[in-house]
Amino acid sequence: MATTKPRDPAADPRRWAALFFIGLAQLMIVLDGTVVNIALPTLQRDLGISDGDRQWVITGYTLAFGSLLLLGGRIADYTGRKRAFLIGLLGFAAASALGGAAGSFEMLLAARALQGAFAALLGPSALSLLTVTFTHPKERAKAFGIWGAITAMAGAIGLLAGGALTEYLNWRWCLYISVPIALVAAVGGYGVLAESRRQERARFDVFGVLLVTSGLVAIVYGTSRAEADGWGAAPVVGLLGVGAVLLVAFAVVENRVPQPLLPMRLIADRTRGGAYLAAGLAILGMFGAFLFMTYYLQGIKGYSPIRTGVAFLPMTVAVLLSAGGLATRLLPKVAPRVLIVPGMLLAASGMLWFLTIDTDTSYAQGVLVAGLLLGLGAGMIMPVAFDYATHGVDPGDAGVASASVNTAQQVGSSIGTALLNTIATSATADYLTSHAGRAEHDPLLSRRAALEGFETASTWAAGIILAGALIVTVLMNAPRPERAAAAHRDDARGTEPEGAEPEFIQS
């Protein structure tokens, strides 16, 4: 499908400046998912939020973000990705300012939901702009290496920034911090980004939008309720069941409408499908690491918020080295699973390292090692998953393809947080029950119980990541890029290259 562009972005000398501003927007989106976490106790006291309602400060953002991503991606395809990018940035800045100035829980919740809605427009447009700007294999590998590093390390940066802003200023700056970032990205993006869009008149699949949005809302909300109510609670089971039915209905509808919101060919492709699964399952398993490390360092080791944030810095450095150094160099030369599978094995090892940690384990022997393994693994997974999630798609579908991998990430993080937190809480309660007679004689019993919960949940997380590695090994059978390119050239001449794997040729 042809696109209209004022200039060819692949030959634009300003494309690396464009990458900076696109990456800045991605940093802001991911950072905002974690920067408020450390500030949550402080803002809860300040605004008088009940324990039952405090989860909505986080869930309000993730619910709007996760459920509107596919719609945001298709809007970007039809109305123009640069335009959607700029509107998303300005809207996100306004919502962040509103949240920082909130004087009540209701106002803060509305601001967080607006942040999520504008992020759902901004995220797919940013990734699709990256996709259509960098098309040369080596440049594309470098760009996606940088993008993957930003995505993987932004969560840790959010924890560090949240701790520093809460401790030295106040919780409101955890929201205000997005305003200057968004404005800088908008001003720079306006000057250097090229516009691209689908040529035909926009015709939105309204029924598909309603089905997928309702289904994702039900699933994300259901998983958030599971943390408090338990996975067997009737509302949770009902929400997850309704969500699954709505998504199945969405898949049926998309195969029958002339202009689907999400063409099934995008996810039916083994390479792209493997990339979506890799991103979703890796995030599902690893997202709990931030939660467990934060509670371990603050609740068991007694770290301050700022010290906790600093403790995540080595993991951030590991992500940069892995994504920017290793993945960027190897991505144009090896098959995608050659990087993704070892990356998932490293991440699983990082989760299993929690089994060696005790209440008196030093930082260097415990959290540092786990963080380095997780960082190295994430840096090998994310650039490849993002690259191949949008690799070979029709330029007119770049926005919705980008939205799909973002949706896999968002749903994975929501399910992972709820699932792993529930497992950890249950294991902690069981430990306290089985050791009830020692409570008077063991002042560290509550800490040991919490650690037991973290270890149990980490084992489950490692199992999920290992299952993902096995699925990617079997499913993602794409050859290395040079062989794929040769297959395309020979296929165009009407010959089949010796030893090639024709099924990799993208749709």
* Helix-strand makeup class: mainly alpha
Number of helices: 19
The total count of strands amounts to: 0
Q: Could you say which overall geometry the principal axes of the C-alpha atoms support?
A: globular
- The amount of beta strand, in percent, is under 5%
Percentage of helical residues?
over 70%
Mean pLDDT: 79
H/E topology pattern:
HHHHHHHHHHHHHHHHHHH
Please explain how this structure is put together.
The protein has 507 residues and is mainly alpha-helical. It has helices at 15-34, 40-47, 56-79, 81-100, 105-133, 137-168, 173-176, 178-192, 206-229, 234-254, 264-268, 270-300, 305-311, 313-330, 336-352, 367-389, 398-434, 445-475, 481-492. The longest helix is centred in the C-terminal third of the chain and has 37 residues, at 398-434. Residues 1-6 and 485-507 have low confidence and may be disordered.
